[in-house]
Amino acid sequence: MTKEKISYSDAIAEIESILQKIEGGNLDVDELAEKVSRVTNLLKICRDRLYKTETQINKILDEG
């Protein structure tokens, strides 16, 4: 699977948008499943990005 190229900020914005639609009850059942899957993928991207950033920061601090 190819990693999606999306910025952390864009991923968070998309998650927030999807959550607003879910909370507003504006999705049918089929679309709900699709959106929940999308949010799951976006959260994984965000977690990976945060982990990599934390690792880089710790490396910089250890070198200093």
Question: How would you describe what is shown here?
Answer:
The protein has 64 residues and is mostly helical. It has one domain. The protein contains two helices and no strands. It has helices at 8-23, 29-63. Helix 1 (8-23) runs antiparallel to helix 2 (29-63). The chain is elongated. It starts with 7 loop residues before the first helix and ends with a helix. 2% of the residues are buried.
Short description:
The chain is mainly alpha-helical and 64 residues long. The chain has one domain (8-63).
Gap between N and C termini, in Å? Answer: 37 Å
Low-confidence runs of at least 5 consecutive residues: none
**Percent of residues in beta strands?**
under 5%
Instruction: Average the pLDDT over all residues and give the rounded result.
Output: 92
Instruction: Tell me the radius of gyration.
Output: 15 Å
Biggest sheet character: none
**Count the helices. How many?**
2
By secondary-structure content and strand pairing, the structural class works out as: mainly alpha
Q: SSE string, helix = H, strand = E? A: HH
Shape: elongated
Any idea how many domains? 1
What percent of residues adopt helix (DSSP H or I)? over 70%
**Strand segment count:** 0
